[in-house]
Write a structure and sequence with these properties.
The protein is of the alpha/beta class and 496 residues long. The chain contains 14 helices and 22 strands. The protein has a 7-stranded mixed beta sheet, sandwiched between helices.
Length: 496
């Protein structure tokens, strides 16, 4: 096996982290990770086959059934979480470099996310060790004896993360799972395995007990073995709705637990009293983050018909000022898409939108002078009908569709006329009106005058945008099982 690692801030890429040690893969297969800004191979990693997945699951199963981790107090596990958070802070620049090259995020934005959201997630869940009720009394229905609800770890968790924001998504899966007492098999995406490999190095550095975290990289076919393995109690997955449906079907066969954070086609409902120029500036700016490769992007801009042209002009003007280019250039506001496949997808949808009858108001092609790298211009499509494919299907790139509405009621109808329900926002200066409209939107998150998706409180979707929540206390619950215990009297070893 030949792997390319020159200039890559990783120590081990030719092995998997299984059972607390680095182990040789079962085959010589490798995956090339390509720099999205240059189209050149950045580094190569070992590719897991079925035997490697089985070994990782076996290590996690042994660690859960026989190891110390599930039997530690939450407070003791929290100490490890704090150590992991501190280690990530120390490696933040390494992770930012990897994320930028793998997925195209502007490096300054990568640094900001890593130093706030990611490290904050581990601190948040560590703090829950002192405040969350892992045990609480419950009066038996007969009135006699002592009852309690004991919340115990669900077991072995298979965590599957995508390529767009890997370190953040790992944090909001791994931190609550570890606090709960679960053991984890972390499956990285083949496009962006760097963050998962950093986490493996950190697990070794902080002395996480053997088998508590196991890390490998595999493509979809082999990844399915992780989902089908009966030794895995729960799958937590972030990715496409199509893949989520397949996972749900497989897990249903054995009544396995799962959390799915899936796609979105999120609506910004701009009311007739909103400052349209300001809304356009906010929406255009948000869409540049990670080149629009965010499931919670507000890509359907629903605006009163009489203000449609004003919104289109504002968005087009804002996008015309965006500097697209090298994501390591501090003056650049938007980098490339992550892969050639992703750029082809975005360009394909732009063509579909125009063929459906949309007006191309801005962008639509590749930025001049950028002949290498998977770059695309931020794009505005106007006069869009909500029934068209570009308004119903997730594009996952910097493409905004502007949809005219007759009135407020029509705007709410349009916003809810979607198979998705992940994120939304209401633009109005009237707080009470924002609340009233927001309560009518079928969406897991509703913000006010901005994209306010918040993993710290809890994030997830209605309808085909997913099952369950990540972040906040709601993000801890799926890693726990409630056990009802009823005794003749209160045992000395039971809290409450």
């Amino acid at each position: 096996m030949t792997v390319q690692t020159a200039g890559v801030p990783l120590e081990r890429v030719a092995e998997f982290y299984i059972g607390g040690r680095w182990v040789a893969p079962s085959s010589t297969d490798v995956i090339d990770v390509v720099d999205s800004g240059t189209e050149e191979v950045y580094f190569s990693v070992a590719e897991a086959r079925e035997a490697d997945v089985s070994a990782a699951v076996g290590a996690a199963r042994t660690a859960f059934d026989d190891g110390p981790w599930p039997r530690m107090t939450p407070g003791r596990r929290a100490e490890y979480l704090r150590a992991i958070g501190a280690a990530i802070a120390e490696r933040a620049e390494d992770v930012a470099q990897l994320w930028t090259r793998e997925s195209g995020i502007v490096v300054g934005a990568a640094r900001a996310v890593l130093t706030s959201e990611v490290t904050g997630a581990y601190a948040y869940y560590a703090d829950l060790a002192d405040t969350f009720a892992f045990e609480e009394p419950a009066t038996p229905s007969g009135g006699a004896g002592f009852g309690a609800i004991v919340r115990e770890p669900v077991g072995v968790v298979g965590a599957i993360v995508p390529w767009n924001v890997p370190m953040s998504l790992i944090a909001f899966k791994l931190a609550p799972a570890l606090l709960a007492g679960c053991t984890v098999v972390l499956k990285a995406s083949p496009e962006a395995p760097g963050a998962a490999l950093v986490m493996a190095e950190i697990a070794e550095q902080v002395g996480l007990p053997a088998g508590v975290l196991n890390v490998l990289t595999a493509d979809r076919e082999v990844s399915e073995r992780l989902v089908r393995d009966p030794r895995v109690d729960k799958i937590t997955f972030t990715g496409s709705t199509a893949a989520g449906k397949a996972i749900a079907g497989i897990m249903a066969e054995r009544i396995g637990r799962y959390t799915l954070e899936l796609g979105g086609k999120s609506a910004a409902v701009v009311l007739d009293d909103a400052d349209v120029a300001d809304a356009a500036r906010v929406l255009a700016g948000a869409e540049c983050f990670l080149t629009g490769q965010i499931c919670g992007s507000l890509t359907r801009i629903i605006v009163p018909r009489h203000r449609h042209d004003e919104m289109v002009e504002g968005l087009a003007a804002a996008f015309s000022q965006v500097k697209v280019g090298d994501p390591f250039d501090p003056s650049v506001q938007m980098g490339p898409l992550a892969t050639a496949r992703q750029r082809a997808r975005v360009e394909g949808y732009i063509g579909i939108g125009i063929s459906e009858g949309a007006t191309l108001a801005s962008g639509g092609g590749r930025p001049p002078g950028l002949n290498r790298g998977w770059y695309v211009e931020p794009t505005v499509l106007a006069n869009v009908d909500n029934s068209w494919r570009i308004a119903q299907e997730e594009i996952f790139g910097p493409v905004l569709t502007v949809i005219p509405a007759r009135d407020e009621q029509d705007a709410v109808r349009i916003a809810n006329d979607s198979p998705y329900g992940l994120n939304a926002s209401v633009f109005t200066p009237d707080l009470d009106r924002a609340l009233a409209v927001g309560r009518r939107l079928r969406s897991g998150t509703v913000g006010h005058n901005d994209n306010r998706a918040d993993f710290g409180i809890g994030f997830g979707g209605f309808k085909q945008s997913g099952v369950g929540r990540e972040g906040g206390v709601a993000g801890l619950l799926p890693y726990l099982e409630n056990k009802t215990m009823v005794f003749e009297a209160r045992p000395a070893g039971l809290g409450g």
